[in-house]
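Suppose a colleague, Dr. K., hands you the sequence of a protein chain of 411 amino acids and asks what its three-dimensional shape might be. Before reaching for any lab equipment, you can write down a predicted structure in C-alpha cell form. Begin with the sequence itself:
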Amino acid sequence: MTGRLIHLLRFDGYFSTMAWVLAALLFINRLSSMVKLFMALYLRQELGFAIETVGWLLAAYGGGLLIGSMLGGLLSDHIRTARLTATLFFVSAWVLLGLGLVTQMWLLAGLLLLSGTIDGAIRTLHQRLIMEYCEVAQRPRAQALSRIARNLGMAAAGIAGGVLAQTDFRWVFFISAALTLVALLWFVRTTWRRTVLIPEETPEAKTGSGLPYRDKPFLWLLAATVLLGMAFDTVYSTLGNYLRDYYRLSTEAIGWQFAINAVLVVALQIPISHWGERWGSRRPLIAGCVLLALGLGMLPLGSGLFYACLSTVVWTLGEALFMPPLNVLVMQHAQRGKSGQYFGLFFMAWSASALLSPVLSGQLYGQFGGHSVWVASAVLAVMSVPLVCLATRLRVSTSQPVQTRKATSLS
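The predicted structure, expressed as C-alpha cells, is then:
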C-alpha cells in the first residue's frame, strides 16, 4: 500500500513529469484568480458603484470569457502555443495592475473585458498544452491532476484574498499580478524549450475535413456540454440563496457545502479517474451526468444540514466523474483536425452555459420558486445523457488511437 502511494506521488511515477508541471502552472494561475472572487465586493464597497452597475461590469468579464475561449483556440492554430501562453500571462499581469489602479467605470469595463478574454484564452490553451506535452495514455491522468490543482488554487485564493482585502483591497490586485508573473517564469523555466508531441496525420487532416463544424459526434458533444454546463452552474449561481431561503442554513453552513465539494474533489478525483481508465470515457461521463441529476434533483425532497451535505456529496461525485472524460473526448476530436477550433468551440459552449444558467435559474426561482430550479437542472442533466451516447457511439465503434511523435520545440 505504501509502495503504491509513493509511486502515485513520485514526480515521474503514476503521473508524467509534464502533468505535474502543468498542474503547478494551473495552481499558480488559480491563486491569482483571487481578484475575480472579490471583484464584486471591491466594486461595491470600495468604489461605491450601484449594484446594477456592478452587475454590468461583471457581465463584461463574462463576455470576455466567451470571446477568449474561441479566440485562444483560433490563435493557437497559427501561433505556437507556448509563445501565445507566455504572452497572455505577461499581458494579464499588467491588466491586473490596471484593475487595482483604475476607478473610472468605462476603463474598468474595458479592463474586465480584456481580463475575461485573457482568462478564457488561457483556459483553452491549458487543454492544448496537455495535448501537446502529454502522451495519449497520460492525458486522463493529467486532467485529473489539473482538476485537483484548480480546486486547491481556488481554495488558497479565497483564503489569501480575504486576508489581503481586510488590509487593503488593492493588495489583492497587486499580489495577483505578482503571482501571474511567477506563473510566467515557471512556464518559461519548465516548458518553453520542451519538445512537443504532435499526432501523425490522419485522413481527416490530410483532406482538410478535420473541422469541428463537419464533425457530427463533436457537435453532439457540444450540445451535451451546454445542457450539462447549465445544470452544473446552478450550484454557483443559485445554491447559496436556495439553502438560505428553503433550508434556513447559515452563511457558515452554506460555505461548508462548497468546502465539502473542494475536499472531495481533491481526495477522490485521482482514484475515480484511475477507476475510469478501465471503462474509457463514455461510461464515467454518463454515470457523472446521472449522479449530477440525482444530487441536484434530490434537493427539493428533503431539508436540514445533513441532507444538504448528502446532496453535495452526490453531485460532487458526478462532477468528478464527468469532468475529466469530457475534456479527454474533446482532445480525441481535436487531435484529428483543427485543434484550436475544437478547443475554442468547446470552451465557448461551456462559457455560454455559464452565462445562460444564472439568467434562466433566476427567472425560474422568481416565478415558480426555488424547488423548480433543481427539477429543471436534473432534467437538463438527464437530457445530456442521450446526447453523450450519440457523441460517443460513432467514436467507440470507428475511432483508432492517434499516434504521436516528437517534434522539435515549437516555442
